Amino acid sequence: MTSPSDRTRAVLDTRWFLQTLAEGEQTSIAGLVRSVAIGLLRHYPTDTEMAVSATVAPTIWSAPRKDRADERR
What we know:
mainly alpha; 4 helices; 0% strand; elongated; BPSL0761-like
């Protein structure tokens, strides 16, 4: 069974992956993948939104760990 911290980590790691694709300047990433990543990121929750969700629904989400978020920036 997925725990709230596993679920939160998966969402945050996916956000990092999408940001990496969206910020890529290499032509090997291909325009389609980059534009889809940008579109998905437009509606993807931020760390702050995840923290609010964790407060409201602690059985579904856990608050993002600051050290993990800092690693990716």
